[in-house]
């Protein structure tokens, strides 16, 4: 068994190293690099504009890290009179450690849908709230659309950018096949789309014969529609859970 890890950044590197250490051959092939966002200079101003009890929502560790670095560099701190949220447990724990604030997250479903299902995100709770969303460029608009429809005023800070990495796709695909890749780890719908565009059409039979390990039913359904039969949905988005999913497959 060999595994292709498409998760970008340090998280992808760490997962690959962890798999290799236990004897599972793993290759790291991220399709994006993570760079600082274009709107970080607005962060302190947007935080100051919030009133007590307003919400700050982070979609990922990348958003939190870039935001925290920016606040620290400018002498600002995370306010203790706001309500903080994250999409998943590990992201919430990381956010809490850096901000020194309590951070809420959806326990059962670490997705935008799960976050929107929290009582704090109900129509009644969001009326007249101001929500500051920390995210990257692109991505889903579900959360943004829903909170606006529920009566909140939404501000968005692009904390990081996903920049495509250029590869020779024929060479890289050939390398994966020669390495015996039979499982692929992806963590977003955008990543799945890029993967299918990246691998030459002539090798799609190989690609879709691989077991796909992903992090939500939404992405799994995208994969099934695209032609995958063997799709595993990890219970959470953190590396520990993805690691266990690979070993259990």
From TrEMBL:
<comment type="similarity">
    <text>Belongs to the uroporphyrinogen-III synthase family.</text>
</comment>
<comment type="pathway">
    <text>Porphyrin-containing compound metabolism; protoporphyrin-IX biosynthesis; coproporphyrinogen-III from 5-aminolevulinate: step 3/4.</text>
</comment>
<dbReference type="GO" id="GO:0006782">
    <property type="term" value="P:protoporphyrinogen IX biosynthetic process"/>
</dbReference>
<dbReference type="Pfam" id="PF02602">
    <property type="entry name" value="HEM4"/>
</dbReference>
<dbReference type="GO" id="GO:0004852">
    <property type="term" value="F:uroporphyrinogen-III synthase activity"/>
</dbReference>
<dbReference type="GO" id="GO:0006780">
    <property type="term" value="P:uroporphyrinogen III biosynthetic process"/>
</dbReference>
<protein>
    <recommendedName>
        <fullName>Uroporphyrinogen-III synthase</fullName>
        <ecNumber>4.2.1.75</ecNumber>
    </recommendedName>
</protein>
<dbReference type="InterPro" id="IPR003754">
    <property type="entry name" value="4pyrrol_synth_uPrphyn_synth"/>
</dbReference>
<feature type="domain" description="Tetrapyrrole biosynthesis uroporphyrinogen III synthase">
    <location>
        <begin position="15"/>
        <end position="243"/>
    </location>
</feature>
<keyword id="KW-0456">Lyase</keyword>
<comment type="function">
    <text>Catalyzes cyclization of the linear tetrapyrrole, hydroxymethylbilane, to the macrocyclic uroporphyrinogen III.</text>
</comment>
<dbReference type="InterPro" id="IPR036108">
    <property type="entry name" value="4pyrrol_syn_uPrphyn_synt_sf"/>
</dbReference>
<keyword id="KW-0627">Porphyrin biosynthesis</keyword>
<dbReference type="InterPro" id="IPR039793">
    <property type="entry name" value="UROS/Hem4"/>
</dbReference>
């Amino acid at each position: 068994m060999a595994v292709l890890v498409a998760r970008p950044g340090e998280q992808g590197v760490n997962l690959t190293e962890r798999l290799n250490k236990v004897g599972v051959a793993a290759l790291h092939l991220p399709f994006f690099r993570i760079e600082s966002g274009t709107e970080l200079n607005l962060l302190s101003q947007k935080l100051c504009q919030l009133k007590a009890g307003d919400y700050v929502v982070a979609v990922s560790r990348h958003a939190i890290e870039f935001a925290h670095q920016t606040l620290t560099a400018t002498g600002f701190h995370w306010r203790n009179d706001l309500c903080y949220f994250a999409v998943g447990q590990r992201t919430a724990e990381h956010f809490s450690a850096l901000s020194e604030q309590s951070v809420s997250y959806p326990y059962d479903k670490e997705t935008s849908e799960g976050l929107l299902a929290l009582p704090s995100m109900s129509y009644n709770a969001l009326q007249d709230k101001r929500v500051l969303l920390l995210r990257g460029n692109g991505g889903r608009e579900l959360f943004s659309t829903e909170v606006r429809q529920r009566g909140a005023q939404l501000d968005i800070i692009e904390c990081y950018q996903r920049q495509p990495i250029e590869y020779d796709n024929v060479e890289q695909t050939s390398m994966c096949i020669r390495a015996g890749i039979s499982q692929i780890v992806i963590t977003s719908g955008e990543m799945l789309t890029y993967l299918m565009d990246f691998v030459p059409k002539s090798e799609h039979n190989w690609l879709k014969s691989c077991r796909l390990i992903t992090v939500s039913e939404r992405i799994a359904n995208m994969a099934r529609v695209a032609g995958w039969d063997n799709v595993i949905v990890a219970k959470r988005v953190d590396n520990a859970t993805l690691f266990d999913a690979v070993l259990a497959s």
